[in-house]
Write a structure and sequence with these properties.
Elements lengths: L2 H14 L8 H14 L5 H10 L1 H12 L9 H15 L5 E7 L5 H13 L4 E8 L2 H9 L1 E3 L8 H7 E4 L2 E4 L1 H5 L1 E5 L11 E6 L8 H14 E9 L13 E5 L2 E4 L4
Parallel strand pairs: 1-2, 1-7, 2-6, 7-8
Antiparallel strand pairs: 3-5, 4-5, 8-10, 9-10
Helix pairs in contact: 3-4
Bound molecules: S-adenosylmethionine.
Length: 260
Amino acid sequence: MSDDYQLFTEKVYTKLGIDLQKYKEAQMKRRLTSLREKRGYQDFTSYFNAINQDINLLHELVDRITINVSEFYRNPKRWEVLRDTVIPLIKMNNQELTIWSAACSTGEEPYSIAILLNEYFPELNTKILATDIDEKVLAKAKKGIYVEQALKELPTNLKAKYFKQKGSQFEIDSAIKRKVIFKKHNLLEDKYPTQVDLIICRNVLIYFTDYAKDTIYHNFSKALANNGILFVGSTEQIFSPNKYGLTLLDTFFYQKISQS
Ligand SMILES: C[S@@+](CC[C@H](N)C(=O)[O-])C[C@H]1O[C@@H](n2cnc3c(N)ncnc32)[C@H](O)[C@@H]1O
């Protein structure tokens, strides 16, 4: 790592609590270099000085680091497995489920699970916690207003039932909104919840180093209740799940091995 970039990562950590050294370096450095150059700074030292004095540059940097793309029912086949196999399994001995959507971005993922439960498992009592490191996306998530593109994978009956069209945008039903609790949480720094029946964490671990991922998988495993499930993104299979006390249940779903 060049000294200039290394120093930048240290200053960003002090200022924002985001440890860039735990994100894959080549990819992150490329993203930040192109932003820095676009703003006309020759090196990361002068770029950081500018960020320190300009809140807009700071917000832009956070946006570039966090990569917030999301959508409802992202990879729809996986949501069918969730409905047909995973939820029936975890509800067998438990009518009260705790669900955590980690790195939830603008809320599409936790609201997808809230809709799915409301539609197919109305008898269940569920607590849905949704977290992200980025306060801006959490504010947007709480509003629950989306462009049509974000709903393209959602079955049309669910779209019609749970959204109200307002001009070119779609607002989520307020009863669904009330089912999700949004909170700021940094997967690399903060304490994890416990006794979670289902953790959904998708399309963020790809950005982390193997070392950071390893720690996060251990933490997820500890956060899960016995037989709880971890649902990961479609490029994020875990190669040795038993290292973390997990076993493969279905593609991209891992179950915590029960500990007596
Ligand atoms: C590509 S989005 C994924 C959204 C959603 N999970 C999905 O799959 O559609 C990645 C999210 O990870 C969040 N993120 C990045 N680093 C994080 C960290 N250290 N802790 C928590 N969230 C983080 C970003 O803010 C962003 O909203």
